[in-house]
Amino acid sequence: MSRILAADGVVAAPSAMRSVWNSPLYRGSTVALFLSGLGASAAAPQITLFLVDNLHVSLTTAGLYYLTSITAPVAGYFIGARSDRTGRRLGLFRLCAVAGFLGWTAMALSTQVWMPFAISAVVLGFSGAAGSQLFAAVHDDLQATASPVGDGVVSIVRMALTAGWIVGPVAGSLLATAAGPRAMLVATGLCTLVQIVPMGFARDRSAQPGAQAEAQAQTSAESSERHLGVRAMLPLLAFTGLYVLVYAGEPIKYGYLTIYMHNDMHLPTAVSGTVIGIQPLIELILMPVAVVVARRIGMMRLMVFGAAFGVGANLCFALTGSAAGMFAGQVLMGGVWGVFAGLGIIVAQRLLPEAVATASAIFMSSTAVASALGGLTGGLGVALLGLPHVFLAPALYGLVATVGIAALNRSRHAVG
Asked: Residue 230, class by beta-carbon neighbours within 10 Å (0-12 exposed, 13-18 middle, 19+ buried)?
């Protein structure tokens, strides 16, 4: 299955798309991550409205809700470490999915202000680790089969998560309008739970067959417990920290770009909506292209360009003052995520190959830290700099990230 016979009799590697379609694990992970993105993105824009309209909290208090996601990296680390010790990726994935269902359902039933905050900080922090376990399971299977199109497979699986985030906000808004925010939160919980279905009865797979795999897994776990300290994790932590600086511009953009286009630039709603919607489209188009380019020039070198695109995008937002500038900024931002969304998880796993589940969890949960940093920066930046010059702050973050990734690329920890 892993190879096909070409017309001239030479054994040729299958395409990444065919590999995903033929593998129940890859195919199931793709559908599961689409459902994950669909549910999470449906709820994200509606949470504040739910807190204000249904639980009657102030806008300031509602804004503090997003700080509860700061516990996600801690929960992700513990889930990832447990996964690396036991090798039971899919079992932990299923537990995290059930936790997500219980958490979102409990939030929909909340009657007190403190309840959504506590649920998000404690329960949903663990549910967010479900996706990282899928990526770890896919990594193990790719290693076991020595797939020649492994990077392409990961990119396709990751694209499904992006696709979910494209559809989710619209679906969530329509459902919240038709049935109310509580029904929308229950639907988010169901999306989280239903992730389990496309995975069927898939089981974890090690990179070596039989008893050798078991012995290798036990040795690796014991070695990991003894030697996986801060020093071994420094390259991963450095890369993740730089990724946080790149990502921090997203909450600033989503929080203030629409306001700027509407109140200051007086753009028609159709134009501003198109500006916002063009980024994920560009991102989806560029993700498979990024895999091909990375094979030629190296992943980290390509990420240097990706981070630089983010600098250019935010300068467009801050300095152009025109619809064309807004479109240019969003196209550049699509380039940023076309690179980082598809390749970031691969780089993270390669920076900590002895603990890929831990690496996946740390990297994927870092978006919570980035959201907190972006939210804080946006609030202070608008007060100090106003619109549109608040976008100079993420441009500066992006510049630091560009320099940092370039330095990491020149170090012995560079990932090709």
From this structure: exposed
pLDDT less than 50: residues of the chain: 1-12, 207-226
Q: Is 268 exposed, middle or buried (0-12, 13-18, 19+ CB in 10 A)?
A: exposed
Q: Which two tokens stand for residue 201?
A: 């009865």
Give 385's Cβ-side CA count (13 Å radius). Answer: 16
Extract the tokens encoding 346: 């691969």
Q: Following DSSP, what letter does each residue of 1-34 receive, concatenated? A: ---EE-TTS-EEPPPHHHHHHH-HHHHHHHHHHH
The helix (H) or strand (E) run that includes residue 11 is strand 11-12
Tokens representing 172 are 């969530």
The C-alpha atoms of residue 172 and residue 45 are separated, in whole angstroms, by: 8
- What pLDDT, on a 0 to 100 scale, did the predictor assign at position 4? 41
303-340 residue pLDDT tens: 999 999 999 999 999 999 999 999 999 999 999 999 99
**By the 8 A CB rule, do 302 and 294 touch?**
yes
Write out the two tokens for 358: 């831990």
pTM above 0.90, yes or no: no
- 76 near 364, Cβ under 8 Å? yes
For CA atoms 163, 170, 259, 251, give the dihedral sign: negative
Q: Which two tokens stand for residue 413?
A: 């920890």
Q: CB burial class (10 A; 0-12, 13-18, 19+) of residue 104? A: buried
Contacts of 300 (CB under 8 A, 6+ apart): 347, 405, 408, 409, 414, 415, 416
CA distance 382 to 390: 6
- Chain centroid to Cα 2, Å, comes to 28
Token pair of 55, please?
């639980």
Which CA distances in Å does 119 have to 141, 166, 176, 191?
A: 34, 26, 20, 17
Q: What is the model's pLDDT at position 205?
A: 65
